[in-house]
Amino acid sequence: MWLQTSCELKFDITFPTPFILMLRARSGAQQWVSREEYRIEPNVPVFEFSDAYGNLCQRLVAPPGPFCIATRTDVKTSDEMDRGFGAPFIEIQNLPDAVLHYLLPSRFCESDRFGDMATEITAGCYLGYDQVAAIEAWVRNNIRYEPATSAVPASAAEINQRGAGVCRDLAHLGIALCRSLSIPARMVVGYLHELYPMDLHAWFEAYVGGRWYTFDPTQPELRGGYVTIGYGRDAADVAIYNQFGPPVIPIVQHVEVQRLARPD
Amino acid sequence: MWLQTSCELKFDITFPTPFILMLRARSGAQQWVSREEYRIEPNVPVFEFSDAYGNLCQRLVAPPGPFCIATRTDVKTSDEMDRGFGAPFIEIQNLPDAVLHYLLPSRFCESDRFGDMATEITAGCYLGYDQVAAIEAWVRNNIRYEPATSAVPASAAEINQRGAGVCRDLAHLGIALCRSLSIPARMVVGYLHELYPMDLHAWFEAYVGGRWYTFDPTQPELRGGYVTIGYGRDAADVAIYNQFGPPVIPIVQHVEVQRLARPD
Amino acid sequence: MWLQTSCELKFDITFPTPFILMLRARSGAQQWVSREEYRIEPNVPVFEFSDAYGNLCQRLVAPPGPFCIATRTDVKTSDEMDRGFGAPFIEIQNLPDAVLHYLLPSRFCESDRFGDMATEITAGCYLGYDQVAAIEAWVRNNIRYEPATSAVPASAAEINQRGAGVCRDLAHLGIALCRSLSIPARMVVGYLHELYPMDLHAWFEAYVGGRWYTFDPTQPELRGGYVTIGYGRDAADVAIYNQFGPPVIPIVQHVEVQRLARPD
Amino acid sequence: MWLQTSCELKFDITFPTPFILMLRARSGAQQWVSREEYRIEPNVPVFEFSDAYGNLCQRLVAPPGPFCIATRTDVKTSDEMDRGFGAPFIEIQNLPDAVLHYLLPSRFCESDRFGDMATEITAGCYLGYDQVAAIEAWVRNNIRYEPATSAVPASAAEINQRGAGVCRDLAHLGIALCRSLSIPARMVVGYLHELYPMDLHAWFEAYVGGRWYTFDPTQPELRGGYVTIGYGRDAADVAIYNQFGPPVIPIVQHVEVQRLARPD
């Protein structure tokens, strides 16, 4: 399907404020960007670079006054995400070098502390995709989706105790559980068609059967319409924006995803 | 200044034909892409990746029949390119690791064969920018710009003998001469505002005084309005498209660059 | 000074066990490896690769039975580490792209939670090196060095509460405090001449004044004799070995650092 | 088999002379370095980095006077190189991104000019490994191995005309022919056990059937005992040393490869 995604952020800046943005969806194996706009007002100099994960990031210094960032993207994405029941666990020695990184614990995914829990959740599963599907189902059924109640970001261990979280929290828990079983897992941020309430979204991917598969514990079942903005080890790597200096709160954060009437 | 660049390529394909395209201008230190379209008809699957130089490339297989690739980009670029007379030669031991690559000879820049000639052209120059400026002037004054007369690509040594060439040929000769003096130099392809006749363009950059500077031996003097699509060691690295299998000739190659009435 | 470092690890393996090792000190800007041995017994196939930080890593599967890894390296390193009092804070917009990564929170360095504490510790400091020196001194004076009492790795926040830790813990706290002030900081593992008790060691580096400087809160004052094995965001990235499957405990871990009588 | 390779280079330096060396064999998928020495006399500062192909390179400035570089390596390598008759041609659209680079023409491999010749040489071959084997046999039988008669490096096209060359020349011709058929091919430099006369050696690899295979047109038949120092597009990328400034000729270049009496 063809989607048009848009994201508008507005700030009221007091001091010159450095930002690193990650708002440019890239074409890749799973999506094709055919049209894109990226407006910054006022129109300050912007420097773009690729981070260690291949995400396109933009650096700028926002001047005092109203500051607006607006992106809009026409992108073709899958009508349905692939499922891979039966796709086998890949033994460590056979994983590609570039994937090993996603086995390590990270800021919000303390995979070093979830071994027993993951083993229990996946007891009896065929090793690989089916384990990840069991983890996804467990998170979906045991961690309540709840709009953010705290400004302090929580880690997988904290979310597990709390029993509730937002999309990034559920993804973190899924990732931590996978890695504790030596299954590479990574965070994805982006858009999802018909997400309710509409906002930026986060989900995760796990590497089984020789490729990455999509999992989303916040949705009742996996469907299509995902648009990726960035990949990373967890939310620390894929913030839509990192802002430095005295904190600045967005006064507007508006996200839209519309289906385009265009043949595939 | 703000420019809108567009490029349209049309082919008549007989057999399924793999292409690797390099037609996506990237935002970077010297330009900002605010809007972009990339249309492919028919709409086959496309896979995008970054090559070894950081260029965004697109892979696809064109099906038999008419095949069209069309890109359009709104981009902010400099009104004037920086000149750097007096910028010093950087000694090899002080060059950044990532730049060393651009000292080596390459397919179309046999820098190993231009040492004496470069020494002669730059005799008496202060080492660094002024040497490159002397090389640029020498190429401008001694190699006649001439529309392509042969389908076989020529190297710097061949162009030097022939005394004439197209923009990529003049750039190759400039690059080969710089490298023979241990000055890193690289090829750039992209667009130039008010190029006549309008087409895709090629020029070069040299690394002196701790940064890359732009040089263009095809133009009477350096002005602004350059839009970069890709960087590489020479034209072999930055083909707008590489096509594999039986050769396919574009039946249309249409390029436009328009100035947008937009404040900077 | 010239040092000979050696590290011997012995395991008693029950099941075929995948390992990823990071035990190959690399020559770099700050050290020169002139001789190196890397013995693995029994002599199974080993595959070497560079990780995302440029560290050389070795992959292998240890077979059941006794398993030994032994490395020995002759390396030239500095007699004294540079200090840089007065070296200025580099504003975010001026940091190299490759350094930005080291501003982010990571598994064991929850820099998102140390802003107030770091501001207090560094109150009145000139921005940059002097802030990091104040952090190093604070950690040295307030966190007791204490041999490991728990198998569970602790994070900077946990160590700060506990008031005691091993070298990696003190480094994590230093890193978290630096990053919370927007100063890039990274973990280093390796050897230190005359460390007591002798073992592998961990310290940190901070990026101020346009380069990386060494800090070590476990030592009463900074001296020379450091040999780097690997760099990373924190201990999760630079484990000397990651082992997968049922846990395997080393039955021997023997480390030596000897000064070689060789002119510099 | 276990080999001990050594290489000694001696220069008589007049002016301070920057060098970039590539003399550190790396452990990798096909060899394991268990012991290594790298001596530089006098003992100037050396900076090591990885180039764009992953080769470890060393930068230094040689001071006036006698200058010596000596490396010695104990390395385990294959007794026999794999052959892969029947391994299929990989279609462009299925090649890994990182391999595409090796399809392009390069300084000494003008693959853009060998299409007809390669088609003729491989007429009737099953597409893939068998084509490369036919190319290897053709070069072996038609280009006479001849010690270097000229200081000026020759390209594949020049060697083909001349009908004679050294090992790097034969490899270049093999590579150019492969690439003209859209088979990725790369240059390898290193050591070969029982090469006669003993020296550094060059051969090539081609990517068919989903992996790299070794080919060596200078040897009557493929055997084991290869030790890789570096990979690149051609000799321009994998010079054992690049020296800058007024040319400096090695007064000694001594290479040895000895079999070690060690069980595999």
TrEMBL record, chains A, B, C, D:
<keyword id="KW-0378">Hydrolase</keyword>
<dbReference type="Pfam" id="PF01841">
    <property type="entry name" value="Transglut_core"/>
</dbReference>
<keyword id="KW-0645">Protease</keyword>
<protein>
    <submittedName>
        <fullName>Transglutaminase-like putative cysteine protease</fullName>
    </submittedName>
</protein>
<dbReference type="InterPro" id="IPR002931">
    <property type="entry name" value="Transglutaminase-like"/>
</dbReference>
<feature type="domain" description="Transglutaminase-like">
    <location>
        <begin position="159"/>
        <end position="219"/>
    </location>
</feature>
<dbReference type="InterPro" id="IPR038765">
    <property type="entry name" value="Papain-like_cys_pep_sf"/>
</dbReference>
<dbReference type="GO" id="GO:0006508">
    <property type="term" value="P:proteolysis"/>
</dbReference>
<dbReference type="GO" id="GO:0008233">
    <property type="term" value="F:peptidase activity"/>
</dbReference>
